[in-house]
Amino acid sequence: MALTALIVLPLLGGVAALLAPRLGRDAERWLSIGLLAVALIALVVAWTGAPPEDAPGEQWLAMVRYQYAPALGLQFLLAMDGLSAALVAVSLVLGIISVIVSWNIRKDSGLFHACLLWTVAASNGVFLSMDLLFFAFFWELMLVPSFLLISIWGHGDREAVALKFLVFNAVAGLGLLAGVFWMAATAPEITFDAFVFAEMGIPPVAQVWLLLGFALAFLTKLPAPPLHAWLPDAHTMAPTAGSILLAGLLLKTGAYGLFRFPGMLFPDGFHVLAPFGLALGAFGTIYGAVLACGQTDAKRLVAYTSVAHMSIVLMGLAGGVHFAMMGAGVEMIAHAFSASALFLLIGALYDRVGTRDLRELGGLMQTSPRFAAAFAVFFSAALAMPGTANFLGEALVITGMFQVNWVLAAIALVSLVISVVYATRLLKRIIFGVPSRACVTQDLDWAELGPIVVLATGTLLFGLLPQLLLVVLEPAVDAALAPLARP
Amino acid sequence: MIDLPFFLVASLVLAVGLFAVGLFGLMLRRGILFQIIALEIMLTGPALAFVAAGAHHGDPGGQGMFVFVLVLAASEVALGLALYLRLGRLADVADSDSVRTLRH
Amino acid sequence: MMALGPLIALGLGALAAMLLAPKAPPAAARWAAGLGMAAAAALALTRFGLPAGMAAPILADDELARFGTLLASLSGLAALVYLRPAPPAKEGPALIALAALGGALLSGAVHAAPLFIGLELVTLSLIALFVLPLTRPALEAGYKLLIMGGAGAAALLMGLALAYAATGVLDFAGWMPGPGLRGNPVMILAAGFLLAGLAFKFALVPFHMWAPDAFEGAPAAAAAFAGAASKAVVAIALVRLTAVGLPEPVWSGGLALLGAASILLGNFLALRQESLTRMLGYSSVAHSGYIAVILASGLAAPEAVPFYLLAYAPALLAALCVAAHLGADPGIEDLRGLAWERPLAGGVLTLALISLAGLPAVGGFIAKIYLFVAILSAGAWLSVAAAVIGSALGLYYYLRFVVMLFRRIPPGQDAPLYPVHAPAPPVRTAALPVPDTAVLAAAGLLLLATGLYPGPFAEALSVLTP
Amino acid sequence: MSLSPFLALLLVPMPAMGAFLLLGLGPAHLERRAVQTVGMLGAVAPMAVMLPLGAYCLAGVCDGVQPIFDLTVGDAVVALALKLDPLSALVGVTVTAIGACVITYSVDYMAKAEVPDQRRYFALMNLFLASMLCMVLAGDSIVLFLGWELMGLCSFFLIAYHVTSARAIAAGRKAFLITRVADALLLAGLLLLFLEAGSVRLDALIPAGIATDEVRRGLIAALLLGGALGKSAQIPFHTWLPSAMAGPTPVSALLHSATMVAAGAFLLARFAPFLQAAPLVMAATAVFGAATALFGAVSAVFQKDIKRLLAYSSISQIGFMLLAIGLGAPEVAIAHFVVHAIFKSLLFLSAGDMTQMARGTTDISAMRGALWARPLAYLAFVAGAASLAGIPVITAGWFSKEAILAAAWLAGPFGVLLWLVAMAAAVMTAVYAFRPVFVGLTRIDRPRPTVGGLFTNVPVVALAIATFAVAPLVEPMVAFLGGVPPHPPRAVELLGAAAPFLGMVMAAALTFVPRLSMRVSRARRLRSGIRIDGIYQVTFVQPFVGLVRWLTGQKGGIADPVGTLPILGAERLTAAVVRPFAHDPLDRGWSRFSAGLVRGWAAGRRLQTGRARDYALALAFGLALILLIAWGTTWR
Asked: How much is the ipTM here?
């Protein structure tokens, strides 16, 4: 029941937020925060509750199975393991943060908050659904509020960019849909239950094609080159909250899909396609990093670093070894924190000075030390400094890569080196130097500092006490790898 | 074909004939009053069939149904005539084709 | 005796309302009829789950009958709520109760007599209800129903008489295809007449002509009862007759043919209707077609038809309730911005329309899935083709109205840009009365419940069909 | 968990870390005095903890591990721990002592800076100290790497301390990038060792590393060596260190000479038993060390800037340490580490004190007449220079360098070759060490002597005394670390003792003979470190920049070509498949279809004529149809 609340609360809350502006000033904001907080409590309840008895594996912490229309094979099946629990927690926290950082949004505020809540609801649906029809439904549903966020509250050429975002992801989503329906059609009796699909023994050749279809959707969301072109544009034009949700949630849904399904449903296909995944990840991590070095727009720069980091995640997921998979899980969480925080900071900067052009910025260190300190902390995270969760993730992935192929490990290390170039470039242009025309007179206020502190705490806490995260992820990783073990 | 007695077949044919006559009356007469009368004729068909079938099978149920049909016919006429009178104030009841504000 | 309880409650309610109508204040008659229907609904509800039996030698007391009684009483109650009492309409409540009584009778009918009496009770009450406002459109709608109803009743009676002639019994059970009956031409003709008679009441093409006119001209409450309750009980009668096993392929083939034609023509003619009620009239024809093709494909999924009715009835009731609120014969332009102006009315109307269109999250979606599963598994390709085309057309015209609900009224412009119907500005009415609000809320909740949590409903309904 | 004395290990980096958190991330507003106090306390307190621990160690209990916490990743257990053994005790004491001295010194040195800048400075210095101590005391590879990386981060921020100076920022980026390359190599090595051992404890890593096959062992050792070379600015990674002098002088003193830069030597000493199992890498270490020692010394001679001179000196001295490690005498290397830390920080601090008088310029010429202008600092500088040059018997530098030379001599014919190189380097060391000393003597007009503040003088004097006081302790140090002090033949030892004096003479000649000093000042090529920077510029930086410019479309191509591929593909597809149909048949077909639908609807609605008679007709038609079908089915 608590699991259902994780999706239903924000979904209905969105409707309520739509109407809330009539109730009073800022009603929709408090409503959203309150609902997400209640959802956090529901998450705790689901997490700490007794493990489900009918679950098909020990890794599941909670499960809801409700026959929707049994004659038609429709059911509402939610299951939560450590990874989904962590990602849902992240999504709720980032949801609250998005509300806080958009406090001065006035244009159609009700719809704005509805979109935020619906994005959270849909991504929670993706993280929890184990019925693939619902998974696909939430997967597509996620696009709608994000599209609106970009196209209504974005900057610059927002409508075209929103359309690009929509077209890329909707077209790629067709691969997923086709795969799901194909599996449902070939199942002994019509069903969309992922657990049933896992048991039914899909022929290896079909697995390859199905995995290709699934991977098309997941890789676009991830995004892995060459499917990443929507990301920099979308990030650049999105409002701050939109960027936070894009980086923190939407990208993670792609990684989550790649984590959950290839091993579970298509082990044979995985063995065939994993080398390509590794190659793609290796290419992407270098490519994203190199491109990040050349950006002049701060948000674009961070967007390309997302490509680089998520490609590391892809390597970890395609590696098929324990260390790499753990690393990918940790990196997902870590990147959600660090990238969101960087977008938050750049957004706050943009609100003050009206530009994100690196050539026009500078001198934050002298005018606003708190701003600079915050930048420095997340700069370290982007660099994968030891002590941040990002380091833990990347180190684990590289360790795994050493088990798979040393060349891949070397490439990941090169990406680590290039990260210095873009990260120091960001610092050099924003916090160092002489305060420029666009100099900031107003340091971070408490409403901005709060989210920053939360995100920094997350980054450092999981970096310094990684066991907190590792114990949560471990069973999920074990279960994901179990079907991959070759006889 | 199963063999039915001529009497019954003839009655049934007659009944269907009555029904058809009523239906054609419904289609061909424009006056609403005549249409109501045609309805009454239509109803006599099944009534006859019930009585004939009841007689053939030696079952009183047919006669019971006959009474029901009569009741229905009576109430339908009552309703129809009330409607006819009321409608007469607003429309040309002699030409039902003119009563067509509701269409398409 | 208890099995007859709902019937008695309905009868007493109707009687009391009739007696109270001339002298007592109008509210008294409403209360009497309302109480009678509420009592009937409650009695039927309490009897769910009891073993099936016979209420009388010619009346079944099974789950199907109880379901039909419940549906008829509740629809009657809802219709009663928004029956606008024009001065000469004091008899309205009594007529609705009487119609509900007919519905209850029909849903329990396992014999020719209650089938016929129930059907005529419903028809005659509805004719009277239609003409109650005594306006020209209302009288015209009543007149057309009278003519068509008479012809339909005659056809039904002809069918019953022929079946009686072939078998010598009036019980449905006696019409089961035995050795003597197989290939009996009288029985086959009887099936044809029966089908035609019921198809009239069910508003299947080409017996549908009265329906759109009735929806447009008659009071919304009467149309709602005709569309929701009487359709439901006729569907139940069809289920019973289908279970009997009338001569094939006349029965199923005819049903499929009429159903497919209804789907196509109903949806097609609704395509660009400007009037909300007329659109709903054609859509009711289409939905009858959907139910008919389910019936024609056999009863593989026992809950399919009841579920369809359960999803369809609240949608139609809610839509017509809003329509009644907007004044006589509201057009598409009158709906502009309703969702912002009256969130409840606009919201529930939206739910109702997307349910009728068969979109997810509301009951209509599940019902549509049942429909497709039934006809696909039966391999009825004609029906499938008709249903696909019909659904596509339906999506277009329902969403046309939904979109208009959310269009904002252009600023600085009170009247719509191009007045379609009347030059008068649209009736932007005051707040909904409390009972209407309750009806809308209940219908909306039921739609959402059947859409989001259909499991229990489907399970409960799966035991209905014999 | 019983209370072990090693629990105190955890306390060592804590004060510095606390000071960092308070100053760097704490939101409270602090006064100048508070900033200085917190910064200094954070730096001095670790020494107060570390010294008793060192004493405890000397007393004989010098092998303890303090677990921090364990992580489990699959089957592997990652057990984080701090470790106290002779190596970490000695280096830890040195680092805390030097750190305390330098940070105390900076209270005065940085006094004129703005409060926020000072706050940032002290925060980063404390963070550096904490991370250096983490690395030194680490009992496992994770904590070691944590400290190692954080040092690099601090180094970057401290080099770029003057945030408005583009040169400083560029230097910081360069330093960070090059050390990061080395860090990546080290990380690779450590991770490979971890995979071999299934544990991260140093005690387990080294045996596991030794136990693996030869190729893998060699590779891991080479990776570790690469990490050390980068961090310690050895050839070919040395280019970052001279530029790093853009930071404030105390930063150069602490990070970029005494402690962080020498961490490479510490790392190799840590893994010495493992390295010894890879003889090829050992030899490479020695060769790199000797070559860097000579190269750094020669380059230092030609410097005009005192800080750059000292930077090259550090490069050269750490080369000596690596030479020792390569020769299998890590104990000697660490002894030299300690001695070098003392005299090099002394040199920086005293030079900083002298040049600060000259309004910020750090040119050697600014030291003219320093003897009279700033006598205390000058004398301290002389003491440091003497130790650096290795004036026999009285200076600590002589003992440690002599030990290295001896180790080389004793290492066979290959060693003799290295010894020759090292001797040459030793001579050049004396040359560059005494050149500034002699410059300090050349000034005729005598300004009034001044003396710096208390916080300047106490550390300088303490370090000056230490350069001499440590002299007799060098051999015990080697023994304490578990090594045997090498003793070459007397003649070789004498040759070594003669080297500094030869150097002094040459330095005097270079300073006082105008023709020679002109030559020195013109030798640009040698001054700029044989232009390896230029080579890097051409081989790495320019291609990379070109790649970036190409990929971002600044060269006129498409930005993000790979990401554009799907878009181009879609456009091509559109052109090929959709466009031919876009205007003609399909599109028109659709519009005709929809128009037809509407027209059909308009026609179809006429079916509903509204005439009751027509309705009856339809009914009759339907009935007839059904009855016809029914009649049809009776034919059989």
From this structure: 0.73
